[in-house]
Predict the structure.
Amino acid sequence: MSYYRRSRGVTPHRDDGERGSAIVEFFWLGILLLVPLVYLLLSGFAVQSAAYGVTQAAREAGRMYALEGDTGAATYAAHVALHDQGVDPGSVVVQIGCAQSPCFAPGNEVTVRVSTTVRLPFLPAVFADMANAAIPVEGVHTVTVDRFREL
């Protein structure tokens, strides 16, 4: 009977303990590679969302300051814009400055700088402070106060 199997090209069965392990290796290798990839994607999305948020906040704060001349209203507009993007406005710094004084004079350029730090997701605060796991993000917008605005 063994001659019959060998003549047909069928090799005898070897039991070396490696049957079915390829799927297990593929599974664990997939987990080991996919978990860091997903974490990098989530971190990138958080930073990109914050970047869009501070850019929009700087633009809205500059427009509000050019219309009203009030830093409180401009800061509130920045916080609303940040909230729209899902960024915590508690750690945001809004700076309004201009080259000439008074700042709210017709024709002056007003520069608004909004900055924050983005903590990496799923990282406890204990490790974040030790590893410096925060990425600074900043948005700058320059707007001109309307020349034909009434004083």
Observations:
- The beta strands are 93-98, 109-119, 134-144.
